[in-house]
């Protein structure tokens, strides 16, 4: 990675972050929705759901964190779409800027913004009774998984950001991603689901990621589950990164 790329990415990252600070409603919106879901499921539905020996808010939090990220990446696609339609990309092409730095600035902005939203949600969960015996290494492992998950979804978001015909179309892709945790172990144990739904829930990426984070928070052995979670994140990231860059090169050629 050249110094030229790092310097250009840093400058463009600063630009993207300034845009967020001027429209804090972006972070507020992506934080309020998962917090509302956390409150709703904990205080309305939580009493009817058997989550085992742990409190329901503790059981629920890992899934809510993934929903927080899935909600936040819609704004990455939206901001990228606005840059495409606003002619910023053409302007950058006339300047001595590393081409890949433009995309990486948006991606890193997404990571920073989503981590802020995740931190707020975790603080609210603590206020609601979330408790964990996780030590520093377990927290670092959770952070690493969330960052990797954010990178994977953000590179997916880059694709509609580059190809969408409208602003609504750029962000609408995130709806299936937000829905996916509902058919996983995020809200209820998969063992309570009917056969076909259970089979899907147990073999989709959200379940392995949620279960791994849940085990890390409880300081339980993660076993092979963590490798399944990492394989999903890395695999999605690699595929999305490849196609996003192919589309980007075609757009600027």
Automatic annotation (TrEMBL):
> What GO cellular component term, any one, is given?
ATP-binding cassette (ABC) transporter complex
Q: Which Pfam families match?
A: ABC2_membrane
Q: Name one GO biological process term.
A: response to antibiotic
Answer yes or no on keyword Signal. no
Annotated GO molecular function terms are:
ABC-type transporter activity
**Keywords assigned:** Antibiotic resistance, Cell membrane, Membrane, Transmembrane, Transmembrane helix, Transport
Q: Tell me the domain of life.
A: Bacteria
- Segments crossing the lipid bilayer: 24-45, 57-82, 103-130, 136-158, 170-188, 224-248
Where it sits in the cell: the answer is: Cell membrane; Membrane
Topology of the protein relative to the lipid bilayer: Multi-pass membrane protein
Principal localization reads membrane
ABC transmembrane type-2 domain location is 25-251
Similarity comment text for this entry: Belongs to the ABC-2 integral membrane protein family.
Q: Spell out the protein name for this chain.
A: Transport permease protein
């Amino acid at each position: 990675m050249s110094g030229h790329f790092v310097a250009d990415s840093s400058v463009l990252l600063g630009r993207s972050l300034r845009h967020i600070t001027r429209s804090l409603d972006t972070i507020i919106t992506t934080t309020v929705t998962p917090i509302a879901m956390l409150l709703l499921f904990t205080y309305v539905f939580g009493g009817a759901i058997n989550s085992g020996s742990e409190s329901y808010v503790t059981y629920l939090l890992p899934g809510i964190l993934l929903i927080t990220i899935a909600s936040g990446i819609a704004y990455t696609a939206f901001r990228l779409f606005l840059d495409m339609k606003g002619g910023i990309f053409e302007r950058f092409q006339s300047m001595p800027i590393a081409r890949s730095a433009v995309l990486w600035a948006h991606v890193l902005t997404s990571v920073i913004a989503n981590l802020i939203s995740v931190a707020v949600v975790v603080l609210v969960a603590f206020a609601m009774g979330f408790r964990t015996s996780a030590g520093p290494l377990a927290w670092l492992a959770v952070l690493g998984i969330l960052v990797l998950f954010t990178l994977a979804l953000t590179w997916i978001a880059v694709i509609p950001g580059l190809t969408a015909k409208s602003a609504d179309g750029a962000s609408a892709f995130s709806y299936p991603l937000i829905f996916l945790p509902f058919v996983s172990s995020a809200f209820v144990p998969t063992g309570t689901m009917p056969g076909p739904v259970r089979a899907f829930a147990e073999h989709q990426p959200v379940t392995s990621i949620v279960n791994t984070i849940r085990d890390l928070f409880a300081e339980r052995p993660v076993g092979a589950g963590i490798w399944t979670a990492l394989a999903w994140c890395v695999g999605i990231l690699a595929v999305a990164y490849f196609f996003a860059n192919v589309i980007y090169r075609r757009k600027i050629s």
